[in-house]
Write a structure and sequence with these properties.
Blueprint (H helix, E strand, L loop, with lengths): L16 E2 L4 E2 L7 E3 L2 E3 L5 H4 L22 H14 L6 H15 L1
Antiparallel strand pairs: 1-2, 3-4
Helix pairs in contact: 2-3
């Protein structure tokens, strides 16, 4: 066998072993990558289980990768940890945070 595994995306052929015929499928039509390797439509996991192919879902929302992360929320948790003394900070930062909290309560 070559340096790459049969059925890997680099081989561009179906890597399903047909046991009754003692050979690989090696079809090159309609290939799709799966966890078990590259498969043709006849040898997908759903086809081998005699189930219909799953339909494509709606996918991710349009702005899923462009939505900024809530940086302000992490700053609030950080300030709360400094006030409680659970996060190491300089003594003057700790005293300033406690003083700010005292003025908010009053």
């Amino acid at each position: 066998m070559s340096t790459f595994m049969r059925g890997s995306p680099a081989s561009r052929e179906c890597g399903h072993w047909i046991g009754a015929e003692h050979r690989y499928c090696r079809s090159g039509d309609g290939l799709r990558p799966y966890v078990i390797g590259v498969r043709c439509p006849l040898h997908t996991p759903a086809a081998l289980a005699r189930k219909p192919e799953p339909q494509a879902g709606p996918g991710l929302p349009a702005g899923a990768w462009t939505t900024p992360s809530p940086q302000a929320a992490s700053a609030v948790f950080d300030e709360a940890a400094i006030r409680s003394g659970k996060r190491r900070s300089s003594p003057h930062t700790f005293r300033a945070a406690q003083a700010a909290r005292r003025t908010q309560r009053e």
